[in-house]
Amino acid sequence: MGLFSFIKNAGEKLFGGADTPEEKAAKVKDHVAKQGFDLSGVTFSADGEKIVVSGQALNIDEKQKILATAGNVEGVEVVEDELTLKTPLVIEIPDISKTMYTVKSGDSLSKIAKEVYGDPMQYPKIFEANKPMLKHEDKIYPGQVLYIPQG
């Protein structure tokens, strides 16, 4: 899955001078567990300055936090990611016809916001998404294509 590098001499001090690989792995797991993550399907092993994290994380957010927490330990230089996800990662590709809008005569950003979001007060979302192309909220013209952020 991947290797992530960390600064070996920075982070939480967990290890003594002569920890075995099993002790290192247990200390890192205890440290990560204190953050409240579901580690029921997660295992940790140590190989020198490398921590290997395997099993299943709840979701992508928790996976990344587990890996970062495991790596931010003094004496850990590399975290090897062998985690899969319990909750599959879903990537939705937006409907391009809904993310692009061609300005018509008489349009304003608030009129477009009302049409696409149902709320004219959402016009700043469109304005911000189209900077630096748009310099001012009132400076749009017919034929101009604007990006309409979703969500």
Structure description:
This protein is elongated. The model has no long low-confidence stretch (mean pLDDT 90). The protein is 30% helix and 21% strand. Strands 1-4-3-2 form a 4-stranded mixed beta sheet. A two-stranded antiparallel sheet has the order 5-6. The relative contact order is 0.15. The protein has 5 helices and 6 strands; from the N terminus they run βαββαβαβααβ. The protein is of the alpha+beta class and 151 residues long. The longest helix is centred in the N-terminal third of the chain and has 13 residues.
Topology at a glance:
Blueprint: E1 2-5, H1 21-33, E2 42-47, E3 50-57, H2 60-71, E4 78-85, H3 96-99, E5 100-102, H4 109-117, H5 123-129, E6 145-147
Parallel strand pairs: 3-4
Antiparallel strand pairs: 1-4, 2-3, 5-6
